[in-house]
């Protein structure tokens, strides 16, 4: 009855997925409720993931990673979600997936040694600070400013909704270093403990409870000029490049939540009886299970196809936007149906589908809201009178 897809994977990727599932059952599921209550993951989880060879897959070996393709990362993440990770635990444990690429792709060897290698070894935690209280998905509207003063950058501004920023060790901060607009942004690494840099508030959320999410304040924060990552005023290009993999990751989370909810629900309706027969004896229940399965299959197939095209070197910015939407819409719908088919128990915190129901609601918002990404895809595909982005 349990659906565990292997189509599309090589034997090596099936083995990676199985390793991820075994790790989850041993090191995550027994502790997840406690982590949800505590509001963050223990730092030692990073080290355990590294020792298991699951933390740095996809990162280049020359930067301290384990190598591998985006599809290898997809196989591992599918295993994690199928075995029972929460969305918040995934986002927090793998925040480096959206932060360290900026450094190992665009930084100097010294920056890679200082910041990337410790994170990929599980000894440090990194995060990426883009969103501001007044900008949301409008990256070009960022106002946090960094100005040169001698051999230092002086940073002033605020960021919000920043994953892993409370327990993190350093933050890649997107700052304005030139006039307003997309082409005046730069990436600057700000270590925790730098005077003037504080987590002004740990945010309380509807879901993703195991993820520490912070609001950050920068008041005359001074860091050396060599904390600039890549070229000055080139951050918008770097961000756009890496949004592709972030959106594929969110699509993976989406169909991963849905897959887990489908399996939990199929088991529940086979065991739960009402009016003298199991719930799955009812045609309407079986029809819902089939539709849940169909949506999971469709979302998974397109997400992995876009990942394959990315690995082949194709430009898939629009396709990543389009992959994210059906996958996260599937997550929202399937989680809702899972709660419905669990009945009153589906509304209880002791039932896992309740957590997935809360966790999936952020997915159509994070990494670019669905409405914003649909418009971006329209421009990229030539369906808009506006100039292509």
Automatic annotation (TrEMBL):
This protein's cofactor list reads:
FAD
Coiled-coil annotation: which residues? none
Q: Which Pfam families match?
A: Acyl-CoA_dh_1, Acyl-CoA_dh_M, Acyl-CoA_dh_N
Q: Which residues form the Acyl-CoA dehydrogenase/oxidase C-terminal domain?
A: 236-379
| Ranges of residues in domain Acyl-CoA oxidase/dehydrogenase middle | 128-221
Work out whether the entry's keyword set contains Cytoplasm: no
Instruction: Provide the Acyl-CoA dehydrogenase/oxidase N-terminal domain boundaries.
Output: 10-123
Alphabetically ordered keywords of this record = FAD, Flavoprotein, Oxidoreductase
For this chain, the family text in UniProt reads:
Belongs to the acyl-CoA dehydrogenase family.
Name-wise, this protein is Acyl-CoA dehydrogenase
What organism does this protein naturally occur in? Nocardioides phosphati
Its organism's taxonomic lineage begins at: Bacteria, Bacillati, Actinomycetota, Actinomycetes, Propionibacteriales
Q: Which gene encodes it?
A: acd
């Amino acid at each position: 009855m349990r659906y565990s897809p292997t189509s599309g994977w090589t034997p090596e990727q099936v083995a990676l997925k199985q390793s991820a599932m075994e790790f989850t059952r041993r090191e995550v599921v027994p502790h997840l409720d406690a982590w949800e209550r505590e509001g963050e993951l223990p730092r030692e989880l990073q080290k355990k993931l590294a020792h298991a060879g699951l933390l740095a897959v996809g990162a280049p070996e020359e930067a301290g990673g384990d190598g591998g393709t985006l599809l290898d990362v997809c196989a591992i993440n599918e295993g994690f979600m199928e075995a029972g990770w929460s969305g918040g635990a995934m986002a927090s444990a793998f925040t480096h997936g959206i932060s360290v690429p900026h450094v190992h792709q665009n930084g100097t060897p010294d920056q890679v040694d200082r910041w990337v290698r410790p994170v990929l070894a599980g000894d440090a935690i990194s995060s990426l600070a883009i969103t501001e209280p007044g900008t949301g998905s409008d990256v070009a509207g960022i106002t946090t400013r960094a100005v040169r003063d001698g051999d230092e950058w002086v940073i002033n501004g605020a960021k919000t909704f920043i994953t892993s920023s409370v327990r993190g060790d350093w933050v890649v901060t997107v700052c304005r270093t030139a006039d307003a607009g997309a082409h005046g942004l730069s990436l600057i690494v700000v270590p925790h403990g730098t005077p003037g840099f504080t987590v002004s508030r740990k945010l309380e959320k509807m879901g993703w409870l195991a993820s520490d999410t912070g609001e950050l304040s920068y008041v005359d924060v001074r860091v050396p000029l060599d904390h600039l990552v890549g070229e000055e005023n080139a951050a918008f290009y770097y961000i756009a490049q890496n949004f592709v993999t972030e959106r594929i990751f969110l699509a993976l989370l989406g169909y991963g939540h849905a897959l887990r909810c489908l399996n939990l629900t199929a088991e529940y309706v086979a065991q739960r009886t009402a009016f003298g027969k199991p719930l799955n004896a009812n045609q309407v229940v079986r029809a819902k299970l089939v539709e849940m399965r169909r949506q999971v299959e469709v979302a998974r197939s397109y997400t992995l196809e876009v990942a394959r095209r990315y690995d082949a070197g194709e430009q898939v910015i629009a396709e990543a936007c389009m992959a994210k939407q059906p996958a996260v819409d599937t997550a929202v719908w399937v989680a809702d149906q899972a709660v419905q088919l669990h009945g009153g128990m589906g509304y209880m915190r002791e039932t896992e589908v309740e957590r997935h129901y809360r966790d999936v609601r952020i997915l159509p918002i994070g990494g670019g809201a669905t409405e914003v990404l649909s418009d971006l895809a329209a421009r990229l595909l030539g369906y808009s009178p506006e100039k292509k982005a």
